Amino acid sequence: MDDLLRDFLTESGENLEKLDNDIVELERTPGDLARLNSVFRTIHTIKGTCGFLGLVRLEHVAHAAENVLDALRSGRLQVRPDLIGDVLAAIDTIKTVLFELERTEMEPAGDDSAIVNRLESWLPDTPPAQTTAPTRAAVPANVSTAPAAPLSAAVPMPSSVTAAVASADSTDVTEAAGGDGVERRPAPDATEPRAGISDSTLRVGVDVLDKLMNLVGELALGRNQLLQLASSQDDSPFAKPVQQLDRVTTDLLEAVMKTRMQPIGNAWGKLPRVVRDLAQSNGKQINLIMHGAETELDRQILQAIQDPLTHMVRNSADHGVEPAAIRRAAGKPDDGTIRLTARHEGGHVVIEITDDGAGINTARVRRKVVERGLAKAEVVDALPDAQVLRFIFEPGFSTAETITNVSGRGVGMDVVRSNIEAIGGTVELSSLFGQGTTVRIKIPLTLAIISALLVGTAGESFAVPQIGIVELVRVTDEQHVLVEVVHGARFYRLRDTLLPLVQLRELLRLEPSSSGETYNIVVCQVGEAEFGLVVDDVFDTQEIVVKPVGRLIKHLESYAGCTITGDGRVIMILDTAGIANLAGVGSTETREEAEKAARAAAARAAAQVNTQESVLLFDAGFPALQAVPLSLVARLEEFPLTAMEEADGHFMVQYRGALMPVIAANAAIDLRTMDPRPVIVFSDRHRTMGLAVNEIRDIVEDTLLLQRKAARAGVLGVAVIAGRATEVIDTDHFLRHAHGTDAASDSTPAMDPSEVTA
Question: Structurally, what CATH architecture does the domain formed by 268-444 represent?
Fold first, then answer.
């Protein structure tokens, strides 16, 4: 059922339940003007909404009753029992139509001229209406309508309309009326109680829900204490009752949380008007498209994001979308588009505000950064565009050339970030100059009760919200070799990426730890970036109640709040976004640069130390064999010719649920020959490709020491491997080539031969 229709039926049902009593009391006390006005407003509201929804029959009856009530209010009519009887009959008719409307989601056909004429006959100097009420367009034209029903009964409906209004009871009684041979079933008695949509909803004050949430939170704290006590005793007689209490408390938490959830569309209601007014005042043509308005999140978070959403949509309309003449000159349609989307994603709500406007001029941002003294020119010039755009969130930062009544004063985006991060969310900005801008917000579903991982370091315990945890890694003494230091920063080689590490001890200035001990890494995700939080111990997960921090430590970025554990201790909840910001590890670009630097450092180290590693040797049709470190190889595959597909001028195979590009290691290799074809699969964090070769020769253990630079693209240099000159390939070159990236755009090779000693 449509949400608008459901709300109408709910509200009308509630109003009509009270209306019967009000009208009866009005008959007893005719001079009660307040009650008369209340009855009039109820009928007036039903009539107005019927007109909006196109419910013609309901509107016609309600309008007739409204006219009589208005005459009573003005004193042109006096309250009489027979007049009140006609008003009640009209209300019975409304109830009957609403009942059928709820059952079938269509307004039933019917002739209400009798009750309408009776009502209008009470009006001074008003002749009875001779026309019948219009019927719904959904009813076939050849359906006859019923004659007037007695005022004491609800209006019956033709059985020939049952195609639109299905029978709810196989024992319906039918009768012939009026001698026209049309079968009719009597409608349910309007005075009998029956369950409906209005009976399935209940209006509860927000303060009651907030109090209930607090009580459930305290119940969860008590549950945690009992769980801890029960777990500390073997064969405790309280174990089973506590487990049952745990299950019930969890279900109760979920049920209470649902009562606080509201659709995000409630925060979008004023945005169409905001965009319309800005478009009118700036002479622009803007379409606002909204998707995912039904996405639900906690009421508290909904209130917190309302102002940031409004500000960012205003920014898109004022800064982003260009006037029609400028868009036309740029080859764009006259109408600009702002797209607002919301969706659930892994326990979060993701909101994106995208426009197809002018985008952000990063050159202007760089200039403003230097002018305001936020960074030196040489530093700003070396930063990638994605990092430069982060300066937009600095207080007072603006690239607007002129100040308007909407923007240009540098106030807003810093507040947006502060408000979003205050509720545990993140905000990211991406833009292509001339094409548009996207703001991506990621926020939790709720703040009151969350699932958290309890960790310990330096004898202190902390809670880390599980919503931002990717995985846990245990680092023993043997695995310390996976920790690398690049430019003074520590990284852990986690599979095919370098994970920036943050020592919680050092960040919080706790006692230092020895480098040889066993520790744990909590892999956290902030936006699109990941980092590892180094802790001593990992305990268990708990549903914790979030309490606000005190005024004295509210300014500390590393904490998102506090909670009470099962043993009664107060511990701090860590803010992963704040920790990433303090440690400067929230950048995907920084991690990628570190990976390149680490590869170059590994090449230099390999040149100075005779360390052996596994090397894959293969034949690609060149005079010399070619080699690649086995650590860079994801898999070795053989694909039949039937698996090689050609599309868009490229060869590819369907590999593990996706299309993987396949390129030849030598231009002389024809991928339409050799069945099956040996393929070496390479993969990094974002890309996967297959390198087609003629033959896989061997895997040997040898020192990978480049003796000579290479002149051919795709080759790092020549090394002596297994006693013969062998070409060492550049895997990054082939990955870029397979995914259409210009090799020249990457100024840092994976392994620079010039840095290797001969």
Answer: 2-Layer Sandwich (3.30)
